[in-house]
Specification:
Length: about 400
Amino acid sequence: MRCLSVPPEDPIPAAAPVGHRHPPPPSLVSPGVAHDPYPAFRVLRESFPLVRDELLGAWLVSRYVDVRDALGREELVALPPGRTLAHMEGATHRAHRALIEPALRGRAVAALAAGASRTAHVLARRIAARQESDLVAEFCRWLPTAAVVAALGLSREDTARVQRWCRGGLTHLGGGHHELDAWLRPHLARRRARPGDDLLSVLCAAEVGGRPLSDGTVAGLVGSLLGGGGEATALALASLLANLLDDPGQLALVRERPELVPAAWAESLRRDPPVPVVLRRAVRPVVVAGAALPAGAVVACLVGAAGRDPARFADPDRYDVLRADRGGLAAGMGRHACPGAELAGRTAGYGLHALLDALPGLRWAPGFRPAPQGLLSRGPRALLVRPR
């Protein structure tokens, strides 16, 4: 599994964790947890709603109400280093978010819609011509990246380059990929000189306090969008397809009622979020799950555990596109709710519509079962299907 080490924190006074002391609580870095974290999440949620994971070096919070509260706390911020919205605070964060949110809901949407819809149908038609395909390798990894590339006004040829960077570590937190800034520099210069209607032009023309955003800030924001499209959205799309293919009745329902596609996406995010564990650090003393934690404490918000909390959701392990109240936390809460969530949802919608149109007999390949992996980022790494 990925290394889950976190920066050292100030000493925490001895305190009894909430819940039972015996048997000991599971650690997120224990063998097998990354393969299937949900049994550990259940134990933590039921018996240790707030507990110190010494191996991880973080406090684990797992119940829905507590995770929702922690994600919205101003005292808890993203771990450094970083230069995305998730790492900004105070007036700087508010100013940047006020610029980006309208752009993500406005001019960028048309570019994304055109790019995502076109790409989805091309990919789906290719898959339809084959006897067997891997939807992760041939669809999920390409569609979200292509959609974000289109929204930014970059060329379709750049999609493969971004895909390589995502495999090399570019994530939804921007990643600081060593080639990204150098690659973006001429694009930023051109947009500053001759802005267009694309999202990259919007960011280059934006001002905070009468001053334009620096190239480094724009590159960080672009890296976050590209990394999110390449990693988080791709994993979430793979989980959506796995949930539907695992339940032919749910898949048939979405085929019959295409208006349920947004609900199918939201329900999959609740049940199988692409980022099940969100790490935060306290910049000052904070109360989490009813306990006082000191400045410097690292808090692991278990979004995956919260999404299956039976105190919040009936029959929470079941995937149900007709669930009346999904209320998932995959997009975050409060000031750090993901600004690209709407773009991700639209992209998934275009993708699912294209697959349902082109592949009327879509089903698992004989003997195949999806096997999600990961903890900080999670989803199936392969989806072998028969298109007809």
